[in-house]
Design brief:
Elements (H helix, E strand, L loop, with lengths): L1 H11 L3 E7 L5 H13 L4 E5 L2 H10 L4 E5 L2 H9 L4 E4 L3 H4 L7 H14 L5 E4 L6 H14 L3 E3 L10 H8 L1 H13 L4 E3 L5 H9 L4 E4 L9 H20 L4 H17 L7
Parallel strand pairs: 1-2, 1-8, 2-3, 3-4, 4-5, 5-6, 6-7, 7-8
Helix pairs in contact: 2-3, 2-11, 6-7, 7-9, 9-12, 10-11
Subcellular location: Plastid
Family: Belongs to the ycf23 family.
Main location: plastid
Length: 270
Amino acid sequence: MLLFSNIRDKINKKQALKVVIGLNNFNVSKIIQKVKAAEIAKATYVDVAANSIILHEIRKKSSIPICVSSIDFSELYRCFQAGADLLEIGNFNVFYKKDIMLSAQQIISLADKLIKKAPNATICVTVPCYVSLAKQVDIAKRLEKLGVYMIQTEGYSNTGKLPLVRSLKNASLSLSSTYILSQNVQIPVISASKINPLSASTAILAGAYGVAIGSFLYDKDNLWNLTESIFSVVRSIEIYNNTLIDSKNISLCQNIICNYIVLDRIKVLY
């Protein structure tokens, strides 16, 4: 509970940063390297495959809170019993390459089963990006009613010429989902998929309580580069939260972001 309280405090401050280690990553030495980098850079928590052996290995080396992710009930429940701080039904992008796409009902049913079997567990669920925004809102509201602690958005890659434009376009699906879902549910929303230092603060402005990074770290192959990259996102969030912006400017910025990210995918709204 102590480790989870650290996650909750950061979420309440809208400063949470999750470092996604990867559902396909079972190399313990590489996992530990990223975990150490996340801890040094003061990330809020890490997200690993729901595997009790990996969980125990991380516990030996680090005190950072651990989230485990899977779409398999038994894996998640075993990790809950082994002391995982947070259970996540999600990080679906790994399964898309295998043409595995869970239906809304499958996601809801899995969440319901997990809540009933482990009522004391803290649960996050990814809301899939391949359904319309209207359907995402419906899924999010049903998850909130079930008692899920928070939800996570996702997206896919896009292109752009300028760094800022490219960064926003790459995260546009996730940002638009973040904005719309945060307007329709009371539980925290974590913005994930193609998030980097440029888009992280935009995600917070769009309504996120925190962000998750994974692909941003793909080409970082040593502890120094990993730590530096993670810390750059931590600072991006902190600078945004510590900057005094009057309500009129915040409203203007939100309108610009809303127009950009929602118009970018208005065709899938219904």
